[in-house]
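Page header: ASSEMBLY MODEL / two components / 776 residues total.
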Amino acid sequence: MEIFVQQLINGLTLGSIYGLIAIGYTMVFGIIGMVNFAHGDVFMLSAFISLIFFLILTTWLGISSIALALLIVLVIAMVLTSLWGWAIERIAYRPLRGSFRLAPLISAIGVSIFLSNFVQVAQGARNKPTPPMVGDVIVLFQGESGYNVALSYKQIIIMVVTAVLLTIFWYLVQKTTLGRAQRACEQDRKMAALLGINVDRTISLTFVIGAALASVAGTMYLLYYGVVSFNDGFVPGVKAFTAAVLGGIGSLPGAVLGGLIIGLIEVFWSAYFSIEYKDVAAFSILAIVLIFMPSGILGRPEVEKV
Amino acid sequence: MNAPSITTTAQTEAVTRSFDLGAAFKDALKTALIMLGLSIPILSYRTDQSGAELFLTPRWGLVAILCAIVFGLRLVLHAFTASRAYRQATPAAHQATEAVHAEPSAFQHVSRFAIPFFLGVALAFPLLIYLIQGGLNESRYWVDLGILILTYVMLGWGLNIVVGLAGLLDLGYVAFYAVGAYSYALLSTTFGLSFWICLPLAGILAAFWGMILGFPVLRLRGDYLAIVTLAFGEIIRLVLINWVDLTNGGAGISSIPRATFFGLPFTAGEGGFAATFGLEFNGMHRMIFLYYLILALALLTNFVTMRLRKLPVGRAWEALREDEIACRSLGINTTNTKLTAFSIGAMFGGFAGSFFAVRQGFVSPESFNFLESAIILAIVVLGGMGSQIGVAIAAIVLVGGPEILRNLTFLQAIFGSGFDPNEYRLLLFGAGMVAMMVWRPRGLISEREPSVILKERKAISGSLVKEGHG
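Prediction written out in full:
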């Protein structure tokens, strides 16, 4: 029972991170129908940006308050990663509108390879550890066998930040002009353009928002694991994509729900079955969902238009 | 002397008139600023480790150089587009039409000579290297490189069946390469079967796996298919790592029996290859044999593909690539078509895999990661999907290029002694894939074209105007 509760907490934390990345996949798929294969690497890149700014703030500028440093890092990482998201869309995806159907995916794979090797060349191939940032835990209750169920401050920060950003983001998509433009483009891009919506700008903004949320995930990942390396984008990226597919691609609540489910499955699988096969579990879910339930839990069934 | 210089100045004046220098300058500055934003902090600070602590090394000089390069390139790009716009605005009518007609015929002209030329070079390669390097042992490095390139040529041609001909984007092709390699490794180490029995078996097993993995993804198209094949590829690799009883896990299988010359081992003693043919023993005999083996396998792949393209199944693949719905409405069995493409592509992957195992004498799951799939895909994409000679040239450039760059000493003089082009290889692969999709989505070296065209070609092929998931 204690282990179960503990794993539940861990799973929800991990799931929040996946959910944040999954939103980037689901929005981009919703609006232009492509799998942004490079999104996982954007997430990895943002973790590096956070790492470097965290080092600058703590060692050079001497900011001792971790909370303040974390807040500044979060804002800077969001801005800089958004710039990357924008630039990637502008360079690698926008010229391909109207090209043949596999072109955007191949281009995205190219961007993904480029980004991970760019970080490897720029920062070196070794794992980058951070000094432990937030170490304190709250012991929720003690089990009979002496096993403490603990909720660390890290986990609280991750879940709270995720919840707050999702609320802001939800408001953005549901209530603002930008969100309406985005949903209009999602439904019918040509019609939206005819009605005076700047489609290119809306798509760019989608990538910017996706990258900003991925950067939050990157910072949280760094906070949680305390280590990042240049090839950390691939597997979390695929898992987040699995989450997006599981929740129903194109659906925002679905992405978050899928993220939480994938996080829970991964953690429980590791705890109760085998830790070696945890990635196999994630990949199998991806294959099974795509084959048998391509519209996911909350997604709309896809209608094939000729 | 006066007359031509007057016309050129007149032309440049006209160009500069249509070319707004101020706006171009502003735009280039903006691009350089974006570059600056992108390089903060990932390029401007390098994290280095001393003990358990990370510290930062600033590299603003590098960032400044990069921003200057981007600024310059953007300015040149503006000048280039402006001058092209000027030339297009005042075209010489006869020149324009000539250029359009000259291009394809020039290419066909080249390709008619290119194929026998490449074939001849490939066949004579060990001899040429022997003559150039002046000895068998000296040519070891080059023959080894030749083997490596040909392995990728074969893999590229195998994947070309799936991606280029049938239009099914397979991101897990390396799984079949792994199946082939492990089939040979396991069959030969546990049952003692020889390479010549294992080679067809490896192909059959890989084709079988191609079918097994092909079945569930039949309904999927485009992006989803790609992602599921990626997942399958990763699952096979993870199983190879974790199923320690069978595959010896991450440590891999070592001491795999070497290839024999149709039963004659390449050993120094009695009954070996050298003794039977009355030659002096040399380890290079085996290398040269391997070279011709992979050349033969690659040519077999090419031959079979070229033949299949002319058979109904090949026509069906191409039809499937161009338009699946039209294909189905014309009564083509898309299930069988897809499965044959998957399994035949996988079979050649399996052959290449078992060759890989016999060459290395060692297999481990790390040789079969996603990056390997991506490299093979990059070869197919950069070569122009569907084009056989294009794939071969792309493999030579992408695999051989970095190796040759490494040996150029003047690059080290420019970039410092620690410069290793291999580090930048994948960086360039990635950038190259994007550039290809943006500028020449149908291939840099040649264009893939349907083998048969009814009546005349439309100006734009159907697949060019489609987008998204179609």
